Amino acid sequence: MSNTKKTFNPYDFASVDKRYLFIAGVYHKDGYTYATDGRFAFKIKDDYPADLESKIIAEDGSVIDARFPIIERVLPSDNQLEVSSLTLKDFKKARSVTTAKTRCYLQSIRIDMGESKFQALIIDRVIKFWTAYPDAKLYKNKTDEKQWLLKDKEKDASLVFMPLWNDTSCTHKYDVVTKKCIKLEE
């Protein structure tokens, strides 16, 4: 991950909810760095200092004394994956409907992108990961329509996510053909 540190902050993927302290940091284990907030999770091959092994590190550098979830349990196998036609450019165009930076506001915007409905917060995180790993491919899980995976096989980096946390109606619609995102009537 060292070559992507300028464009990728793993703490953007950790929980900010202090009730869930066990996922409020970045975990290091067996040469991989992990983070999750429950809606998305990543696993990245990484060179990190040996003293971080098997530790959850908070953004302030302190060690969180907790047990980190096993991310491998939610990563789909290659035979479960189907390539998506959506591109990084599509996600950036869809995300352009708002310049909001707060997590709360991003959670309230839901965009229908044709293949799935995406929460703006998820789109934001997909863009951050995909920008750091531009050779990654986007996949849908054939056996679980709510699960998607962004994977860079060469760099051994994966981001698994659920596009929309719940089945609420969308606030925007992104047209993949015209590459425009419009606000839907309430």
Q: Could you describe the 3D structure shown?
A:
Helices cover 15% and strands 28% of the residues. The N and C termini lie far apart (42 Å). A hairpin with a 4-residue loop joins β7 and β8 (117-119). The protein is α+β, with helices and mostly antiparallel strands and 186 residues long. α1 packs across α3 (120-132). It has 2 domains: 2-73, no CATH class; 78-183, no CATH class.
- Average pLDDT across residues? 81
Report low-confidence residues grouped into runs of 5 or more. none
The outline comes out as globular
> Which percent band covers the strand fraction?
25-35%
**How much helix is in the residues?**
10-25%
The string of secondary-structure elements, in order, is EEEEEEHHEEHEEEEE
What class do helices, strands and sheet pairing give?
alpha+beta
Count of runs of 4 or more consecutive helical residues:
3
* First-last Cα distance: 42 Å
SSE layout:
Blueprint: E1 26-29, E2 32-36, E3 40-45, E4 55-57, E5 63-64, E6 81-83, H1 88-95, H2 103-108, E7 110-112, E8 117-119, H3 120-132, E9 137-141, E10 148-152, E11 157-161, E12 172-175, E13 180-183
Parallel strand pairs: 7-12
Antiparallel strand pairs: 1-2, 1-4, 2-3, 3-11, 4-5, 6-9, 7-8, 9-10, 10-11, 12-13
Helix pairs in contact: 1-3
